[in-house]
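Sequence design from tokenized structure. All designs in this work follow the same two-part layout: the structure record, then the generated sequence. An example of the structure record is given first.
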């Protein structure tokens, strides 16, 4: 199996750590948990503590369920979920490495700060409707039915959405629509995404991005 060269990732992380500074709360959090070697490449895009980076379309993975993270890594490695960068990283890890990476990120505290500003009232109302109630006329069930109250996630079932960047969430929904992402059980997300128009996607992703999330 071909292993990727992580030198560039490590240099990037050194720059990132310097930018945070020794007095940063993030720097303090880093001292409390030692990341396994397999997590080093992840930090360059997902942040030093899995908080996500909207600028590179990388989601928050801190506090995400280990089962979900491990499945995504397996899917990236097998090609069931396509992404050039993540595919290379996932393939470089053994099954044991992926399990350690997943357990590490699952153990980190979920970022409590929302990634997006509060959307305009009409957008927020539509987004909340899609998230909490669903839209019977479109045969779309509420997102929270699977993703938990306020998008807080359901272990062994669905990831948390609250506080994720709207751009990332929108990109994933459109990937389900295009058929470029199809690694969901029973094609449920494919079915839901196909019933959403661009206005719906903008509304529901802005709604979730505006929610802060703190989990035990």
């Amino acid at each position: 199996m071909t292993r990727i060269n992580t030198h560039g990732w490590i240099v990037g992380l050194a720059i990132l750590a310097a930018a945070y500074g020794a007095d940063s709360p993030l720097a303090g959090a880093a001292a409390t948990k030692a990341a396994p070697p397999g997590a080093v490449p992840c930090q360059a895009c997902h942040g030093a503590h899995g908080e996500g980076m909207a600028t590179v379309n990388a989601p928050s993975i801190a506090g995400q369920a280990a089962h979900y993270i491990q499945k995504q890594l397996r899917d990236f490695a097998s090609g069931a979920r396509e992404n050039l960068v993540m595919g290379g990283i996932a393939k470089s890890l053994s099954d044991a490495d992926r399990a350690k990476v997943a357990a590490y990120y699952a153990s980190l505290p979920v970022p409590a700060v929302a990634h997006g500003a509060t959307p305009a009232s009409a957008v927020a109302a539509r987004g909340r409707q899609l998230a909490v109630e669903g839209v019977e006329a479109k045969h779309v069930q509420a997102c929270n039915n699977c993703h938990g109250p306020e998008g807080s996630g359901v272990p062994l079932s669905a990831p948390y959405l609250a506080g994720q960047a709207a751009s990332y969430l929108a990109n994933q929904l459109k990937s389900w629509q295009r058929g470029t992402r199809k690694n969901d059980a029973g094609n449920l997300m494919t079915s839901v995404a196909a019933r959403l128009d661009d206005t719906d996607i903008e509304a529901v992703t802005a709604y979730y991005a505006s929610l802060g999330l703190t989990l035990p």
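The first helix runs from residue 7 to 20. We note this feature because it recurs in several other targets discussed in the main text.
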